Each structure stands twice: as C-alpha cells, then as structure tokens.
Amino acid sequence: MKKEIELISHLYRRAGFGESRGNLDKIARNNYEDIVEKLLNPGERESLPDDLIRRYHVDQSEMRLLNSATGNWIYRMVTTTSPLEEKITLFWHGLFATGFSKVFHGKTISAQIDMLRGAGLGNFRDILLGISKDPAMLFWLDNNDNHANAINENYGRELLELFSMSIGNYTEKDVKECSKAFTGWTVQNIDYMGLRALSASIWPYSNIAWQYEYKDEDHDNTVKEFLGEKGDFNGEDVIDIIVKNPATATFISTRLYQFFVSDTISDEGKSLIDLMVKAYFDSSFELKSVLRCLFNSSHFKSSKIRYAKVKSPIELIVGILKLADEFKFPNMNIIDASRSVGYMGQQIYNPPSVEGWHEGVEWLDSGNLLERVNFASRYLSGADKTCVQDVINKIDDKYTEITPKYLLEECLKQLGYINLDKLTKQNLVNSVSLKEFKNVEEIANTVSDTIRSVVSSREFQLA
C-alpha cells in the first residue's frame, strides 16, 4: 500500500501540483490506470467560482493588470478538480510563451490561456490552429504586421523553430513560404502599426480583449512550396503539413517528456519518446493518447525518475497552497502568491522571451531558494496551520507514545507522502526534539518545527 500511494503521489506531483494526504488516501482506492484515465478525462470541472472571486477582487473581472490575471489563474490551479487540465495549460504557456511586457493587456493573454485550457488535451492540429489565430500571439510575434506586400517572418519562424519542429528540420525557404501562408491573419481591433487597440470598450477604462480577423485581401495567394509540398497554401494548410511531419511528433513528444518526466533523457527515456511518437501518429495527433502512453509507462512509474525534476515556482506555490487548504474562499493571500511567483523567477503571463523560461536547476539560485523555503514555511508551519492541526489529529492523544521517527513519518504523509533519502530522513529524525508533552501547544510547536524542516529539504523542492 505504501509503494502504491507513493506512486500515486508521484503521478499527482507531475500530472498536477501534488495533493494533500486526505485526497491521496481517497484517490488510492482506485487502481493506477483508472486514476490516469480520470486525469485525462475529468468530466465535470469545478474550481472556486469566478462570481465568488469577483466579489472579493473586482480587478479580476477585467484582469487588465498582471497580478490580477496571475491571481485568477492561481485560484483555478489551486482549487480545480481537473489538475492535469491546468498542468497541460501551464506546459503550453511555457511553449507558446506570450508576454505581458509587450501585449500589455491581461485580458487578452487570459483569453489565450482559456483557449489553451480548452484545447490543451486535444488534437495537436487544433492546438496549433488555436495559437495561430490567438490575438495575443499574433501581436506578440508581429503577425499583424505580416502583409501580402510586406512579409514579416517572425511568427512563421517561431512556429517552425519553437512550436512544432525545431531547428534542422526545415529551410529558410520553408520559413518564408510558411510566413506567406499566414498573411492576412491579424487582430481585428488593433491598428496596423500595432500600437494600441482602437475599438470602443465596454469598460470605462482600458480595452476589451482583442479578436482574431482574417483579411483575404491582405493574403498572399501565390503558389507556395513548403516542406516539399506545393499549393496555394493558407495557414491551415501549413499546419496540416506540419503536424504530419515526423520531426513534429518527435519534438512534441520530447518536450512533453522533459516537462512531465525528466530534464535529461536517458536511454529508457528515448525508448519512451519513441512509443509516444507512435501514439501520436496512431491517434492522429491526439495529446491524450500521447500522455496516456507516458503516464502508464514503466519508465514513468520507476523510482529512478522520482524527485528528478525541480519544481518551477508556480508548481511549488500552487502545491503549497493546496496543502495549506488556503483558498476555501477568496482572500488577500492571492496577492502574496501572485507576487511571490515573480520573486522566485517565474511571473506567469509574462515569460522573459519567446523561448519561455529556462527551467530545471536554474530555478534554484541562493536567493530564489530562500524565497521558496520562506513561502513554504509561511503557509505550512505554525501551530494554527492546517497541516500542523491535521498531524495533531492523527496523533490524537497518544503524545507520550510517539517517537521522533513516527512524528516525522506523519509529517511526510501530511505533505503528500513525500519520501526522503535515508541520510536526510535520519538527520531530520535526529533534529526532532520530543519532550514530555503536557499539552497540545507543545506538540503543535514540535510538529510545526518538523514540517518547517521538511519543507527546507531537498526533496520538497523537487517533483
């Protein structure tokens, strides 16, 4: 049972943001393959209702500002009953990186996130088509400046290089022909100079979210030659050619592997990627089939790849807030969470460039690590915190019977069935100070200190 629940805990750290002990105990009543299916097909989705959120945060109605948009997504990530849906949306946000620094309109980027949420576990063709029509992306990569008589190659180049195939699988001519195919794909309520939205707004301040528009008169209707095929291609035709290319299958399978499994690719990893490529083509480009192959593989289940990925700041913060049961109702700690993500180096809605964030061990410089540990301690340790009280309830009134090892194990279970290496565990056992407990306050302080030690451990920073 312990090995099974540790496997399920591992699955939820990777396919979601981790889960509390209580939720994992309930989930573990099902077999592993059924749990994977539930993640892939969650059915009715629930999260903290938007109308309730807006009673507390008027700014999240419009989401004009960066922290407002960020906070709204954090609320959803923390409270959703469909964690994989949010996790895959985060994956696409990193791959199709679109930044507030240029778009400068949270509502428009939020609309992109909503689109990715809806399409993210579906067909890769639909995902590429959705992002190609997305107003934030069109503006971010200057396709609103891509005209039949003045080709702009920014979007065409990044579509091939960063979004689908990677360098070495296309030519400069392919970039030019691809870019021609996307002429006329623009933003309806923005001027051609790309300076500001021009349409009237339903709000007395700022602008409504931008809208996609296709202008046939601005489209290059010449015959194009792209990746060995000829025709009067439009953007949809180019996407059809891209998704059936073997390089695309390898690219997307590799990126999914690096996001959900490991930053480095072992021989076992290469074999799994080959199986994912096969699943991609067998299902006609369906992401659910690719992820089903990944999560059910023996490689993903292996203990070798557990705690092999550094949690990104957003993964860490959302996981902590879930453990803390912080958002039963909206509260002002959402502002702390939104700001802390940026302090740790990953301001969602605002990746640093079209390449997204540099991940892995780069998340853990000395300043970021201190911020990460302090955030965890702030929400998980303290005599009045949910995690501490739940451990006390498990101990019940057996205060005089507990040992340091038992107390540590209860804290590890409470934090999502974390498994520490032997040396770390022994060091933490040695640090637990058990007195003759006379009251709940004394045991609460010891539990709090133990949890604070666990969240400072190497394993807590890893997924």
List keywords for this structure.
463 residues, mainly alpha, 4 strands, 55% helix
Residues in helix, %? 55-70%
Morphology: elongated
What is the string of SSEs from the N terminus onward? Answer: HHHHHHHHHHHHHEEEEHHHHHHHHHHHH
Identify the strand order in the major beta sheet: 1-2
Largest sheet: 2 strands, antiparallel
Query: How many helices does DSSP assign?
Result: 25
Which structural class is indicated by helix and strand composition? mainly alpha
Report how far the terminal alpha carbons are from each other.
21 Å
Whole-number average pLDDT? 92
Structural summary, described in words:
The chain has 463 residues and is mostly helical. It has 2 domains: 2-305, no CATH class; 386-461, no CATH class. Helices cover 55% and strands 3% of the residues. It has 25 helices and 4 strands. The chain has helices spanning 2-15, 21-27, 32-40, 50-56, 59-62, 66-79, 83-95, 100-103, 106-119, 124-132, 135-140, 154-161, 172-181, 235-243, 246-260, 267-282, 287-295, 298-301, 313-323, 333-343, 366-380, 386-395, 404-414, 422-431, 440-455; strands at 185-187, 212-214, 224-226, 229-231. Strands 1-2 form a two-stranded antiparallel sheet. A two-stranded antiparallel sheet has the order 3-4. The protein is elongated. The model is unreliable at 191-206 (pLDDT under 50).
Task: Give the SSE layout.
Layout: H1 2-15, H2 21-27, H3 32-40, H4 50-56, H5 59-62, H6 66-79, H7 83-95, H8 100-103, H9 106-119, H10 124-132, H11 135-140, H12 154-161, H13 172-181, E1 185-187, E2 212-214, E3 224-226, E4 229-231, H14 235-243, H15 246-260, H16 267-282, H17 287-295, H18 298-301, H19 313-323, H20 333-343, H21 366-380, H22 386-395, H23 404-414, H24 422-431, H25 440-455
Antiparallel strand pairs: 1-2, 3-4
